[in-house]
Amino acid sequence: MANSLIIGLGNPGTEYDLTRHNVGFLVVDAFANEKGLRWTLNKKHKAHTTKFSKDDELVILAKPTTYMNESGTAVLKLCSYYKIPATRVIVIYDDIAFPVGDFKIHGREGTGGHNGVGDILSKIGGGFTRYRVGIGEKLHPQMDLKDHVLSKFSADEVQILKDTMPKILEYLQLLLDKGLEHTMNLANRKDFI
Fold it and tell me: Is residue 79 part of a domain?
């Protein structure tokens, strides 16, 4: 069996804390916290990392220290070092297609217009699992997309994320335990939350 990588996407730096684009960081932080793990800066792999053992395999959690558009650099370095195939990579990232706290899991190819996912695709190819966490649509149709994804969650939205995080983490664990097909069939039903 191969090791696994769970990578949350976001931008480094405190100015990006609680921004919509950093929801991937929020999820892996919560997952690490639930397991009592501590992050370390791994300069060689351009990421903050932590890891735990599961069934004699390593599960590596990572948050790239590069900006979003260069997320694939850390993924490639970690996959190469830990000999992780793309099919054992779970990428958690923001999606404006659905409301804050909703999520979708799939293995389809393509970027969905997400630059971080695009960079990962260009570095390791396809086959990885996409874990998309909703951040809500633009507040105004004329709003620039960059301004929206770099805006902070409102207090109400932060509460929604807190309320839905246990379910998000439950399905992340299910991905590790049961695999993509099983988890996807459960998570993507309309009544999953």
Answer: yes
Q: What is the pLDDT along the chain (193 residues), one digit of tens a residue?
A: 579 999 999 999 999 999 999 999 999 999 999 999 999 999 999 999 999 999 889 999 999 999 999 999 999 999 999 999 999 999 999 999 889 999 999 987 777 778 899 999 999 998 999 999 999 988 778 888 888 889 999 999 999 999 999 999 999 999 999 999 889 888 877 554 4
In a domain, 118, yes or no: yes
Tell me the DSSP string of 45-99.
GTEEEEEEEETTEEEEEEEESS-GGGHHHHHHHHHHHHT--GGGEEEEEEETTS-
The answer to the question of residue 68 being in a domain is: yes
* Structural domain harbouring 110: 4-187
**Tally of domains in the chain:** 1
Residues with catalytic function: 21
CATH number for position 106: 3.40.50.1470
Whether the CB-CB separation of 145 and 15 falls below 8 Å is answered with no
Task: Describe the crossing of helices 155-178 and 180-187 by its angle, rounded to 10 degrees.
Answer: 140
